[in-house]
Design goal:
single chain; 451 residues; mainly alpha; 14 helices; globular
């Protein structure tokens, strides 16, 4: 009976984390969408310039993910072990590391934007808007870095609702700021892209301040920096042990997708447009798996900290079943709704036909993607991120990227052939990750030694 109550408590904890993380992630996605929507009233060039700048800044965020992913996992294990000193020291080490990294990247964007724009070979009509966005938003990258860090730490403490509240407030503030500064309302000057950049950094500053206040009020009463003397290098090593492979896998995936987009561009404008429509729609399919993956990793990390690896295994299996069931159900419904949905997005009959076929391929793809998202994050939480990193790099480049060239371009199967390769990539990686999780080889890993 006790075990049954414990299982119910874990499931309730999982739900209490997943729901706010899902809402927060959705709000972050809507934040970017509102920027594009409002700038579209200015000009297509403004949208293109900000889109280009954000694509580069997203790659930069991968550097921040080293500290963010590592800190979230290590903090969750110390929370599970009830080691308050280890938790506070890990928080302090993560904050210092990310301040230094964010400041260094900010200096690069603040003083070397012309060289960055020239290296990217930005079209002349986009140079001015892209430059001002890089200088303002990129120059204050430290705000993005700290927001990601504070949000991850609060999630590890089962306080995911606070980042959700902050994201909701920031969305409202950013919409107001965009309206006032882009279009020159309420007595503000009409600044266009510069106004969007200023609104973004002001919103992030308020988010950073609110998250820091929430951490101080809810979890860490004394100064974080008191824990840094002497500096906890062991905690920083633990952060790197988790963060480097995890962020490395994400960077490899992003770079692989960049190469694939280059290959799709060779197929023509219709294929590129179809890929754009599909990725924007399908993102909402695996949003649930992303949220459940983050919450499952936190609970698994806490269980590992308590030396409850058997419970972590059972929770992992439960989470994987839920993620696969929801993702496949949503993708199946999307494929059924495709004949009604796609004509609303484009009048091009060829693009509609292409997307309708690919949506059915994607049903199988989502099985693998759900397992990879859940399994990869839970292996990181268990202190074994290297396995997902190695498997990910080998398979995604060997199957998805190389296969896209062979089947999409060389053999002439086009975008459908490429999507089949994406499906094979996700499912093959899922097979290895699922087998590794079920084997419990990760249970032999020990990340922390609680005091």
């Amino acid at each position: 009976m006790t075990n049954q109550f414990q299982r119910q408590d874990l499931k309730r904890q999982l739900v209490s984390l997943t729901v706010p993380i899902f809402i927060e992630t959705l709000l972050i996605m809507l934040l970017g969408f509102m920027d594009v929507l409002m700038l579209s009233r200015v000009s297509d060039d403004a949208v293109a310039a900000v889109g280009l700048a954000n694509q580069i800044l997203m790659l930069v965020n991968m550097v921040f993910m080293v500290g963010v992913m590592g800190a979230t996992v290590v903090c969750s294990q110390y929370i599970g072990a009830r080691d308050e000193k280890g938790f506070v020291q890990t928080t302090g080490a993560a904050v210092v590391y990310n301040i230094l990294v964010g400041a260094a990247i900010g200096i690069v964007f603040a003083f070397f934007t012309p060289q960055i724009v020239a290296f990217l070979d930005v079209r002349q009509e986009l140079v001015d808007n892209a430059s001002v966005y890089f200088e303002i938003v990129g120059g204050l990258s430290v705000l993005t870095c700290l927001n990601m860090t504070f949000s991850g730490i609060m999630r590890s403490c089962n306080l995911a609702r606070y980042p959700m509240y902050v994201s909701l407030l920031v969305n409202v503030l950013n919409i107001f700021g965009n309206y006032a500064l882009i279009f020159g309302k309420f007595g503000f000057p009409e600044l266009g892209v510069q106004g969007a950049a200023i609104s973004t950094v002001v919103s992030r500053f308020f988010a950073c301040s609110l998250l820091l206040w929430a951490i101080k009020r809810q979890r860490i009463k004394e100064s974080i920096f008191k824990s840094l003397f002497p500096f906890p290098f062991e905690k920083l090593r633990q952060i790197f042990k988790i963060g480097l492979p995890g962020a490395g896998e994400m960077f490899s995936y992003s770079f692989s997708q960049t190469v694939i987009v280059y290959l799709i561009n060779k197929l023509g404008t219709d294929a590129l447009a179809a890929r754009t429509y599909l990725t924007n729609i399908i993102t909402f399919i695996f949003l649930f798996a992303l949220s459940l993956g983050q919450s499952s990793a936190i609970v698994v990390g806490q269980l590992i900290g308590r030396k409850r690896k058997d419970a972590a295994l059972r929770l992992g299996r439960f989470s994987l079943k839920i993620a696969v069931s929801v993702s496949v159900s949503l993708s199946f419904c999307l494929a059924l709704a495709g004949p009604w949905l796609m004509p609303l997005l484009t009048g091009n009959a060829y693009i509609v036909s292409l997307c309708l076929t690919i949506l059915w391929v994607d049903v199988a793809l989502e099985v693998g993607r759900a397992v990879n998202i859940l399994g990869g994050r839970m292996l990181s939480a268990a202190g074994n991120p290297e396995f997902a990193f190695v498997v990910g790099v080998i398979v995604m480049w060997g199957v998805a990227t190389l296969g896209s060239y062979v089947f999409g371009l060389w053999l002439g199967y086009g975008l459908i052939g490429m999507w089949i390769c994406f499906m094979a990539d996700e499912c093959l990686r899922a097979f290895f990750i699922w087998r590794h999780w079920a084997s419990q080889k990760w249970a032999k890993k020990n990340l922390i030694h609680a005091e």
